[in-house]
Amino acid sequence: MGNRSVIPFGPQHPVLPEPIHIDLVVEDEKVVEAVPSIGFIHRGLESLAGKRDFNQLVYVAERTCGICSFQHGMGYCEAVEHIFGVEVPKRAKYLRTIWAELARMHSHLLWLGLLADGFGYENLFYQCWRIRERILDLHELTAGGRLIFSVNKVGGVLKDIPEDKLKEILRTLDEVDDELRVIRSVFFEDRSVISRLKGVGVLTKEQVNELGAVGPFARASGVRVDMRTLGYAAYPELSFAPIVSNDGDSYARCFIRMMELFQSIKLIREAIGKIPAEKELEVPIKGNPDGEYFMRVEQPRGEAFYYVKGSGKPFLERMRIRTPTFANIPALCEMLKNADLADVGLLVLTIDPCISCTER
Amino acid sequence: MEQINIPEDVLEKTEVSDLLKRALELKKAGFRFSQAHASYIDEKFELSYSFSNYDNYGLHTLRIVIDPETEVPSITEIIPAAVFYENEMKELYGVKISMISVDYNNRLYRIRQETPMGPKKTGGEE
Amino acid sequence: MAIMKYAPQALKNLFLKPVTKNYPAEPAVYPQGTRGHIDISIDDCISCGMCVRVCPSNALSVDKIKGTWTINRFDCIACGYCAVKCPKKCLFVNPGYQEPKDGKPDETYTKSPEVLAAEEAKRKEAAAKAAAAKAAMEAKKKADEGQ
Chain A residues with CB inside 8 Å of B84's CB? Predict the structure, then answer.
């Protein structure tokens, strides 16, 4: 048995944009135990449910996270719409799908960039973020915000994407597609990438199920699950199947997210091709929510849970957001066991941690 | 889009004494733990433990309604993933949960006020 | 496995023109519809207070008598919900972000004197009408009592 010592990791660390602290118990260069602690930036958004009415809460829910903001707003709206029992107009559903997939693309590109930065490939990092910038420009063009969309409302969407902007999206996506193919071949074939990712941080399917991991992290270990199959927004009408890998290592996680980028491009193209030309973008909502509902949506980071309970008053009794990173932390700690100390930063990145989500 | 027959969400009311038994049964039946949360409504705690089946996307929620003073056994022995959820319930609401495998002792979130969302002792929120 | 996989793109990037702008020498271009900040055409405002009630971050306040509309631009999250809910549609979300400042000052818009005078006159008229109605009521009541 070697020398045991405890090394603190975070809350400030070059690979972490956000604060999470992990105490690493190391034996020589191997991690034997990892104890996480979160809560540096807890904001108490859930307790705002008693102070803002259910329409204002859309904007609160959206600000849970800066990166998957659209899906948070959408998940909350869909949950309240289920309580009201209203059906959103078709065009609004398609618009939500387009925006959700654009948001997924920007999130995955951000992650790929951070991963490249994590294993020390600066060029690739800048190239990913350069492509991401074009997606952000599309956000600004269509919704008015680069990260926070604020286009959702309970019962529909507030803004339409006119025909010329849809064409602009398609045109940009064509260019992004070409650029992505270049970095895909680098991520999949380059020697330095493979030697840093292949076989690092392996989790089996059983471990993932036991520890409740979600999203691309779980799909990389062979769990065939994608909440888009549940059929919210316009997904039931699009051709879509979850992307799954059986390797369970960091390379598989990179593979899943890279392939999901192309899947998102495909879904957006299909949605723009099928979008119905309706005038109606929202249904009128009368009264206040009375009832409860569990809504699950697939965010870039995985399955997010929304629980909304109202009692016929404008103020909800409970709004609960379970973010994907919150579910992934136990699996992360399991993954860190037996990892090399030098790989810890990279492994923390591979779950795509979004700590601000976690500390809603 | 592949076609999957998604069953309706189930909300099952149960008792504190049956919680561990039901959780174990669900786990044996192939469900995995999704989330747990508490809410404080009408001076009662409503605890929800959600389990999902990832083969057919079914969602099964166990709901227990208890007085604030009732002690709840921790399910972390059966489901290790529930650690953070139970610590959160304990810290934000003051639910009395016993025997959590890794108990953060109200140090999970660095907040000034104790149990900010639970029963009010003195003073308001914020 | 391959080495130097990224080299062609890296070389290409060397000769491409930069994707970044020389800001602030070159001004930033915002697409139409960017949610930058809230503007008001104050003379159309009827001081109903709807925007104050719906604002998720409590950044607005309205004074009906003085005819003012006040916004704290540092509390405002530019969600645009007030502009959606405004019954007179006199609030606009315009491009251009809030510039940094020392302190977090409120910004107050006051209605023009003509509009204020017109509103004052309207209020006086309404008050006079109400007073007249009240007087008539009382006179009637007295007459009833007298009978």
Answer: 38, 326, 329-330
